[in-house]
Amino acid sequence: MNTDPILRVGCAAGFSGDRTDAALPVVKALVASGGPAVLIFETLAERTLALAQLARRSDPEAGYEPLLDELLRPVLGLCLQHGVRIVSNFGAANPTGAARAIAALATQLGLRMPRIAVVGGDDLSGVSQRPLLASAIGSEVHALKIVSANAYLGAEAIADALLAGAEIVVCGRVADPSLTVGPALAHFGWARDDWDRLARATMAGHLLECGTQVSGGYYADPGYKDIPGLANLGYPIAEIDADGDCVITKPPGTGGRIDEHTVKEQLLYEVHDPAAYLTPDVVADISQATVQQLGADRVQLRGVRGHARPASLKVNVCHENGWLAEGEISYAGPRAEARARLAAGVLRERLHGLGPLRVDLIGVSSVLADDAGRSLAAQEAGSARDVRLRVALNHPERRAAERLGREVTALYTCGPAGGGGVRTALRPRLGTVSCLVPREHIADGFRFIDPDREGATA
Amino acid sequence: MTRSFQVSLYRAAHGRTGDKGNRSNISVIAWHPALWDTLVEQLTEDAVARQFAHRRPSKVTRHLLPQLRSMNFVLDEVLDGGVNDSLNLDSHGKALSFLLMDMPIHVTPELAVHLVGSDTAD
């Protein structure tokens, strides 16, 4: 349908909570290129969807990306004017609600109404889906207080929506790279079993899906890995060719850097066996892949191969999982570490029997250590002068978990001298069970949203 | 045989941690192709398992990507349950790449020119 050899896909978010001023430079660069282009936002981490389901429970209109308006407002007009299509999983637990919000935003901005498609079929949290989950997980699924259950959908419904004329495609749970594979599949018209090309586009999507993690973000280490302009990082753009190979670049005038090292770090991010990176679309193989710097902030990825897609789709089931209680208090100055260690001993004694207690001495030993305290026990007491004691435990019952916060607070009067700055937190925990469901049981597809007709609770 | 000297891994390589469930993957990317053979020889699965002993990984698997001068370590059950159950502030284990990068390795003097930074800078 299109003879342009290059499709540009820009990514303006790598997670829910990413910078909201990222998109404008990306869209400007896409527009300036003059060629076909797509803007993606990846806003769904493993557990974001469960949080979105909880939000929707308390407000039926909620449950999509809370920052949707901030993400889209600066660029929606420009995208519609220049034909930059938008594909995102910011629909989360309520893609239809997100679509309505986008339609309302377009109206508010005085723009023409875009053709908005919603991809569905991922949500398996309904009671009618329980037998399917039971067959995949086992009968213990009936004991779980399920918050969300979603299949990782692939690129096909996205591609179909784009081929049908969608200007904006709103998804819930799809595999992150599929946000890129879908547009490539639609643009180049590849066969849906062209595994090599699908795998190459998948790895292009993989390089994009964490936003600036490929362009210098989450990379800098002063004196070793210096990156210019971390406060103004450029978000990445993949230039994908008809074979699926890509060049990763970023908008001019932005901070950050794209070189072979930043690309390699992101290429291997969250990969296990490099010869078998599993997605709903394909099994990608980067064991023979190469990266090559073509110029400033331009790196080419080649040599990716593909194998037939898995017969099953991954499903994540999130369930209520008790309570996480945390408390912190600071000690500073002479013998700070000794006083923090004494306070830890007091808490161990006071909370004995409640469950395994984790102790951190922040400033001495914390995130690299283990929950059981082997690491801390093996470390000799030192003389650190600025230590924040942190304790944490899990408990199935809220009332019992609350005791931790009270005991940490009581250190104000009952603990060692000079403790200050108590903070306590009590949070519900979510557990996740992953399983595989044969793909023929998942009815994924898209539909267009008619903003004039959609009921408020559709 | 020239005499080798000891440096921290971060002078020869860089890397990033990723997590899925209770499993962590940590990449190790050579700063220079000349350092590759040294890394392959010394960063064995056993050596990495020892570096993470207190986190009790049930299994450490090394995948080599020679054309990228990179390797990928997969550490099973190293996250105390991961984001579901861990009591760690960093329940994803995002900081773990720096535990790996702290490993001592031995390099021969002719490779010194390819190392980055200095050992006094940490």
Task: Please provide a written account of the structure.
The complex is a heterodimer of chains A (458) and B (122). Chain A is α+β, with helices and mostly antiparallel strands. Chain A folds into two domains: 7-124 and 152-310 and 439-448, no CATH class; 317-434, Alpha-Beta Plaits. Helix content of chain A is 29%, strand content 25%. In chain A, the strands form three sheets. Chain A has a ten-stranded mixed sheet with strand order 11-12-8-7-1-2-3-6-4-18, sandwiched between helices. The mean pLDDT of chain A is 96. With 122 residues, chain B is of the alpha+beta class. Chain B has one domain (5-117). Helices cover 16% and strands 30% of the residues of chain B. Chain B has three helices and seven strands; from the N terminus they run ββββααββαβ. In chain B, β5 and β6 (70-76) form a beta hairpin. The longest helix of chain B is centred in the N-terminal third of the chain and has 7 residues, at 36-42. The relative contact order of chain B is 0.31. Chains A and B meet through α10, α12, β16 and β17 of A and β3, β4, β6 and α3 of B.
Give a summary of the structure in a few sentences.
The complex is a heterodimer of chains A (458) and B (122). By secondary structure, chain A is of the alpha+beta class.
List keywords for this structure.
heterodimer, A: 458 residues, alpha+beta, Alpha-Beta Plaits, 2 domains, ten-stranded mixed sheet, five-stranded antiparallel sheet, B: 122 residues, two-stranded antiparallel sheet, 3 helices, 7 strands
Using only CA atoms, what is the Rg of chain B?
15 Å
Q: What structural category arises from helix and sheet content of chain A?
A: alpha+beta
Largest sheet of chain A: 10 strands, mixed
- Overall 3D geometry of chain A? globular
Strand content of chain B: 25-35%
Give the overall pLDDT of chain A as a whole number. 96
